[in-house]
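Researcher: Go.
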Amino acid sequence: MIIYKDIVTGDEIISDTWELKEIDDAVYEIDCKKVTKGTDTIDIGANPSAEEQEEALEEGGKQVIDIVDAFRLTFLGDEESGSRAFTTKKEYMGHLKTYMKKVTEKMKENGADEAQIKAFQTGAQNYYTKKIAPNFKDFDFYAGESMDTDGMVVLLNYREDGMTPYVTIWKYGLTEMKV
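Model: Structure:
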């Protein structure tokens, strides 16, 4: 198994247990699942019905997103009020520019050539322009376990069906650790 860690903070962000879809040679999009945590259940292989999920929540269970829970990602903001750490695109862009500089420096330290760096920067710009900026209000922001916001901020949104959560992770902001 490969665990991918944030190149800046060393936080575990994702593993190859999930399917990583590479987009624009800049990011990975990973589909997640909502799971109920905190109740004793016996898995017989069947999908739980809507009523069973509601009963589990009534019995003290909590619905979480599997990747957020598995890697102890921390919501940046106040979950109760729904406020987010980055309330404007400008605030997020300020963070992203600083983070991208750090990633570029790490890429150079690790021997990446200028063409690879340029491809990453172009892909990141394209992804931001096409996906993040037009849907900014729909994204939630998460930090790794250390809660160090100088590192990668993982983006969470939902697919067009409105039911399937997915995270966006910066490809070159990761290092691999084989376990």
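Model: The radius of gyration is 17 Å.
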